[in-house]
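Students often ask why we bother predicting the structure of a whole assembly rather than each chain alone. The short answer is interfaces. A chain on its own may look different once its partners are present, and contacts between molecules only exist in the joint model. In this exercise we take two input lines together and write out one structure for the complete complex. Read the inputs first and try to guess which parts will touch.
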Amino acid sequence: MRNLVSIEDLDRAAIERIVALATNFGQVADRPIKKLPSLRGRLVINLFYEASTRTRSSFELAAKRLSADVLNLVSSGSSVDKGESLRDTVATLSAYGPDAIVIRSPHAGAPALLAGWTHAAVVNAGDGKHQHPTQALLDCYTLTQRLGSLEGCNIWIVGDVLHSRVARSCIQAFRMLGAQVTVAGPPTLVPDEFAQLGATVAHSLEDLREADVVYALRMQLERMEDSLVPSLREYTTNFQLNARRLGARQLLMHPGPVNRGIELSGEVIDSPQSLITNQVAAGVVVRMAVLYEVLAGAPPETDQPHSQSPALEPQTA
Amino acid sequence: MSTLVAVSRPPAELLLRGAHVIDPNAGIDGAHDVLVRNGEIAEIGAPASLQAPAGAQIVQAEGKHLFPAFVDPHVHLRTPGQEHKEDLETGTRAAAAGGYCAVVAMPNTDPVLDHPALLRGMLMAAQRDARVPVGFMAAISIGLAGGRLSEMSELREVGAVGFTDDGKPVADAGLLRHALRYQRLCGGVLALHEEDPALSRAGVMHEGAVSVELGLAGIPSISESTMVARDSLIAEHEQGRIHFQHLSARSSIDALAAARARGVRASGEVTPHHLLLTDEEVRPLDSNFKMNPPLRTEADRAALVQALRDGTIECIATDHAPHARDEKNVPFEQAPMGTTGLESSFAVLYTELVLPGVIGLQLLLERLTAGARLMDLDVPAIAVGRRANLCLIDLEAHWTIGEAGYESRSSNCCFAGREVRGRNLLTLADGAVAYRERAFALSAA
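Now the answer. The structure tokens for the assembled complex follow.
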């Protein structure tokens, strides 16, 4: 795998390979010395055009755990803010000879453009409302850890699906692994066109009990300003996931950051059925797996199966 | 009143030998010799029947097709103010290369063409730079701001072809009404870019399954069609003459057909890209497929083709909209809207509509010239005594759009890389040779 721009770049086998790799890295994460030498001497640049805490820090940590050098560039205070075009910024960064560029952009398609301009491997850390493939992969990993398999699993994605790159990537990834996906929310935020992505569209939570997993999305205040929802209060009345709506055996996920009391009630966030902190922990090992895959993975031209486990010897200090 | 201006060139003295001449307007379809003297069509005769007078050049045109040259009622020549995208010279060179003998430039320049003095300046510039005659539309509202009316009657006296706020809708229905009343004083078609900003908002592509999948903000079809319906009613009420630019949606066609059935004096144009492409092209997020109005669905595309066929849409306009490479080489949402079209229009339409039998060649030729009539300009015709406005096309030639670059200063063509048939070899515009393909020789008599 050369780049990870979209879940569409992957197939079921590739997702399962990354999940397996992340499982191996997860074993290392439990050791006292958490660092592996796999990417020693490689340079990973995190190029972030949008505010991000967990995605950027988990990519940074993932690269460091694999012994890569990491350069973080965030939009505020850099040339990015001074009107430099993406193309010129990339030309400048390419002079440092990066092996991978991780990019977060407010604009759909920026990672794909970047891939055409650089020799470095490109990893999409979220582009506009288009794709967020590593989030979907870490969600697949989290669910696989808990359930063993997603085959036949019924997953409901609830909330502002229209404006969510997480939802788009998750619908594709969950379906590739054999799950059935329902998207639910008000018609302004869940247009019927989502059926064309293979998801079932629901405009109420009446049948939420069918779900094995309920995946809540962040509800943003600006949606109210656009009149997409009349008020957050009304939204919570119809679509908040709380102890009344959520059954005890249903698993709960959220990509974070959570608006406590809006899309989720406090009691379900803190309940044992919540996988939210598991998702955060999975963020590091899955991004390790993705960086390993694009930088050290088997060359695509060979038909040999990918080595089952990368070098797992802890780095000798 | 409408003034078309180009560089003054020596009138052509040419004998075109044996071309298959087709002109639906003049009712010609067959092999002929055509003699052009002093820039006028002097004689049309049987093949090999005409003699070249002394000093005339001979074009061996057997096996080639001679058509009336095309007229584009909608191009952006980016002058003044955005000459890094296009200027009068490069834009009209592109037009000549595409077989056009006249183009009408839009006023969304910098500064906006909204004042008689600016129009005078542009007409002088065209006299110096334009390879084919250029007409200019003036703005309906000052600065395209949608607030105050431009000095319409004075602009007409200076030579404005008509009026448009193209690139933007006239959102204020009251302003459009005043413009239509003023039209009774000064004439000049009002060409309308139909889009309700409250519906299109920050949209960057057609709203539908593809926009939902890509996570891009959509521009719904109703953003166009509700305005077509509204403005048809206003024009009907004021008994004015309006022209709908670059129609893209099936629902707009329905609204236009309904208005025409009521007797409203409304016409419409369609672009080659809306006739041939759909929003599926946007999937790879290539900004060359970002235009306004956006590429819509297959149902819309099919309705546009049908409307072109049945005459609901009377002409083809390219909406040639050049942008510099750096401006387009950015993420889709940030890229400016528009595609070039002058150099590819005939070939793509011939290849994808005429060759498969969707429309006839005669109909295509009629629709590529009818823009002149809708703008109250002379329609080119191959008839004795008329100015020579001709294009000579090799319908057998295979080529790839963009393979040898473009005459336009910009290369943002949505048809780049398409294999097509039909190559223009020679264009005569207002009696003078405006374009000759480099490899195509004229010989002395």
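Check your guess against this: Residues 27 and 382 of chain B are 9 Å apart (CA to CA).
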